[in-house]
Amino acid sequence: MQDSQRLTLTITEAAAMLGISRNLGYALAKRGELPGTIKLGQKRLVVSSVAIERLLREGNERGDERS
Question: Which has the closest alpha carbon to 19: 50, 46, 48, 59?
């Protein structure tokens, strides 16, 4: 499986896609405000790549409506 086909991202990768800091990414995930966040075990957090892509697509569509 290639990287572009991964189903999950690290918080750092998701934050980079969203243009936010790693720390903000973790803060949003812990508050339940980062869509698609999945907790694995005691510490591991990953984010659904589909959820991030959807968030970006929907945000872009809303931006188009405002223009």
Answer: 59
Domains in the chain, number? 1
CATH of the domain at 60: 1.10.10
Cross-strand pairs, 8: 48
Reported as a single tens digit per residue, the pLDDT across 49-61 is 999 999 999 987 7
Which residues neighbour 32 within 8 Å (Cβ) at sequence distance 6 or greater? none
pTM value?
0.79
Beta-carbon neighbour count of residue 21 at 10 Å? 12
